[in-house]
Amino acid sequence: MKLLSPLSLAILAAMSAAPAAAKEPIEIIQPAKITAPEKVELGKMLFFEPRLSMSGFISCNSCHNLSLGGVDALPTSIGHNWQEGPINSPTVLNAEYGLAQFWDGRAKDLKEQAGGPIANPGEMGYTHELAVSTVNSMPAYQTKFEAIYGKNSVNIDNITDAIAEFEKTLVTPNSSFDLYLQGEQDAITAEAKSGYQLFKNKGCTSCHNGPAVGGTMYMKMGLVKPFHTKNPAEGRIAVTGKEADKYVFKVPTLRNIELTYPYFHDGATWTLEEAVNTMADIQLGQQLSEKETVEMVAFLKSLTGEQPQIVLPILPPSNANTPKPVPFEK
């Protein structure tokens, strides 16, 4: 009998110990790799910078609160002058994995997305010109921009580039489910394991797959049965103009889903139990039993990963050249 060499034995051992993750529709979230720490730090400052809004009160973090799973935990966000937002705020966590940004996919990437709310009168209510003037008025910001982008580099392109660089770091690795995929069989409960098998058997992974468990495609909301909502958003049709894209939205990530309530683009569903039963009904034409609901929710909760550990930035003071906030319309 021919004996295997130590190298062959090592290869076989590695193959047998390889996690099932490679065969699964859900992939492991990797920790952030920061290659430009100065730009990330500048982006963090701008992410928390309320003076990018007309009121001087609303920042990116207002609607994508990093202490609340990257959302504001409201049905729709509160915009400038207490306006009611048109749609539920999606989480910023793991957003880099999305094929596009916003529910209707109108922004191709995080950088383009970052510029949208600043100039939206229903959100931050500012203009890009005023945002640039505000940032450029403060010497501390000028110094940071010059060190990263060169002289006279405070412009909206670099402002949104820095914000995007920070947002790319907002990933949530090491969920109990990721540990399970890496071979730790006891990382999740028996209920969660059953829920994951159910998640696959029911066909949920046809839309919710990849590292973010979603975000990789668009799908009609109400595929089998109509989705009844009072929210006026019509999805991709607003971008493409195609009737076929009516009520088609970007499939949301399910990572950290227990933290990112209320659910769906209208933010009208507050519990995971109701959410999974609604999706089973209108997307799959199926009904979940009480036991299946418990198992599915247990699996979804296992997708909660390590939250970004953020040290709040100290922002530079305004001065006589900084545009004054207008928090209230007379």
UniProtKB/TrEMBL annotation:
Keyword Oxidoreductase: yes
Gene Ontology, cellular component aspect: periplasmic space
Residues that, per the record, bind heme c 2: 204, 207-208, 279
Signal peptide span: 1-22
Xref: InterPro entries: Cyt_c-like_dom, Cyt_c-like_dom_sf, Cytochrome_c_Peroxidase/MauG, Di-haem_cyt_c_peroxidsae, MauG/Cytc_peroxidase
Name this protein carries in UniProt: Cytochrome-c peroxidase
Localisation: Periplasm
Principal subcellular localisation of the protein: periplasm
Cofactor-binding details, from the entry: Binds 2 heme groups.
The EC number(s) this enzyme carries: 1.11.1.5
Ranges where the Cytochrome c domain occurs: 38-146, 190-304
